[in-house]
Amino acid sequence: MSRAVVPEQLARLPWRILFLVTAISGFGLVMLYSAAGGSLRPWALPQGIRFCVFLGGAIIVSRVPEDWFRKAAFPVYGALTLALVAVELLGAIRGGSQRWLDLGFIRLQPSELMKLSIVLACARFYEMLPSNETRSFGGIWPVAILIGLPAAFVLKQPDLGTAMMICAGGATVMFLAGVPLRLFVGGALALAVAAPLAVNFLLHDYQRNRVLIFMDPESDPLGTGYHISQSKIAIGSGGIWGKGFLNGTQSHLDYLPEGHTDFAFATMAEEWGLVGGVLLIAAYVLVIRWGLDVAQRAKSRFARLTAAGLSMTLFFYVAINLSMVMGLAPVVGIPLPLFSNGGSAQMTVLLCIGILMAIDRQNRHRPHGF
């Protein structure tokens, strides 16, 4: 864009990433339109309006100085932890889960925002910690508490998928900060040993059934395994080129549950086939790669850890959802970012993009203030 026509601050925006993000969301709106039988309501129109609002918010966030995120990391973490307590006491119940605070214009899911906050809080902690203490016990247990406290509240809602995302985001920052690899190996082994006990005694019945049915979905194709079985049918029936826009049968005939949220990829793959799926995944790869490039160029330890942690959070969103809808992982309720219907998840992902743009802007220009 010519700076003679476009204001300098506008010209400096990462337009390629904004185009990719808009393309992913636009493709999602097309899918939501189809899932509703060729109607803008009840999903496509509200989702489109929210995207425009949150994208504008992301662009505003991109103008925020890095130091503001640094100073806000712990206060925001504390506020969201209190919000998780409020969800436990006052939260709206939907689908048997208590995860939302009803704010009128949106049902806010604080656990979604905690996925970002945990990255900022952990990055801030390790920036404050002297580098030679990262591998010490004092460099591990405070972060373990930072991660474990909100994860425990989220697990109680119950929301296993989001709890896993919070743990994964925090653990990623710990690893990148230099926490010894042997601790992660030991933790993985301990988790493998404890997993059978957790499945039998800690998880809710429906969560336990999802884990068990993942191992053999055909054992109960009309019951607990119904979601996975129908998702596989939808994806497989799309073939290479798909059945064509508005010609999907699994979602239109209501065989595919949650075809506009958790299983949005299956709805898309039935109509757009392998080609549509590959293009969508490629777009996600480009966005995540850009985020990792931002981390590599970052000037401060906080910015590097934050950018890398947020980029990997986006990766976990995509990887877990795609594994879930393809039957490669248990169904844990993780939406496909910018594609699935949902206001809180959309807001979280665009905030993530906004923070990455802010870090990228300061990497390139290092201005002061707005």
Itemize the secondary structure elements and their pairings.
Blueprint: H1 8-11, H2 15-35, H3 44-61, H4 66-90, E1 92-94, E2 97-102, E3 107-108, H5 110-128, H6 141-156, H7 160-177, H8 181-201, H9 205-215, H10 226-237, H11 264-297, H12 301-325, H13 343-364
Antiparallel strand pairs: 1-2, 2-3
Polypeptide structure, described:
Strands 1-2-3 form a 3-stranded antiparallel β-sheet, with helices on one face. By secondary structure, the protein is mainly α. The protein is globular. The chain is 66% helix and 3% strand.
Distinctive features:
370 residues; mainly alpha; 13 helices; 3 strands
Number of strands: 3
Strand percentage: under 5%
Determine the N-to-C terminus distance: 21 Å
List segments where confidence is low: pLDDT < 50 over at least 5 consecutive residues.
none
The main sheet orders its strands as: 1-2-3
What would you call the structural class?
mainly alpha
Q: Evaluate the radius of gyration.
A: 21 Å
- State the share of residues found in helices, binned by percent: 55-70%
